[in-house]
Structure formats: C-alpha cells, structure tokens
C-alpha cells in the first residue's frame, strides 16, 4: 500500500498539470464543427468586415449547428478574446460580437 504522502503528492501534481496559462498571442485550439462550411465562411467574412481587417486575420475554431441556428467562434489577430457570430440554419449572419471587454 502506498503511503498517504505519496498519494497526496500524486494528486497535487496531477492537479497542477491541468493548469495552463494562456497569452493573447497563442493560437486557439480547434474545438469542432464544420470549420469550412457556410456558417464558418460567412462568419469569418462578417467578423473581418466588423473589425475592418483582412479575412486572413480571422480564424474560425468552433462551429455549433442546431435547429435554432448556428454559432461560430473565431480568433482574430491581436484580439484578446474570441469573437462570436450567430447565423440562421442556412448560414445567414444575424449577429457578430466580441466576447471580451472593450
């Protein structure tokens, strides 16, 4: 049987290994959905227009599709938080907003 100290130390190290500090310049991990479909394409363009940026500065990393509509999240070069874009089921953009402060 392992001593209580070994068990506590093991769990402490496991807990610390889950801590990850991110900085605004790190790329956002792709989380899922159809990242090349109509919603992603239209949202990428809408976010670029909203920010007056080149479309290459916008990267969609998550798309969730549902009967009620779709939501895409994007990272934008220089932004500290993701942008969120909502569309109808056909990919027509209804809302673009920044998820951070400012």
- Name the overall outline: globular
Radius of gyration: 19 Å
Q: How many beta strands in the DSSP annotation? A: 4
First CA to last CA: what distance?
55 Å
Write down the secondary-structure element order: HHEEEE
Sheet of most strands: 4 strands, antiparallel
Any low-confidence stretches, pLDDT <50, length ≥5? 1-25
Q: What count of structural domains?
A: 1
Query: What share of the residues does DSSP label as strand, in percent?
Result: 25-35%
What topology, given as strand order, has the largest sheet?
1-2-3-4
> What value does the average pLDDT take?
81
Helix content: 25-40%
Description:
By secondary structure, the chain is of the alpha+beta class. Helix content is 27%, strand content 27%. It is built from two helices and four strands; from the N terminus they run ααββββ. Strands 1-2-3-4 form a four-stranded antiparallel β-sheet, covered by helices on one side. Strand 2 and strand 3 form a beta hairpin. The longest helix has 14 residues, at 4-17.
What's the short story on this structure?
This protein has helices at 4-17, 38-51; strands spanning 58-66, 69-76, 83-87, 93-98. With 102 residues, the protein is an alpha+beta fold. Strands 1-2-3-4 form a 4-stranded antiparallel beta sheet, with helices on one face.
Summarize the helices and strands and which ones pair or pack.
Elements (H helix, E strand, L loop, with lengths): L3 H14 L20 H14 L6 E9 L2 E8 L6 E5 L5 E6 L4
Antiparallel strand pairs: 1-2, 2-3, 3-4
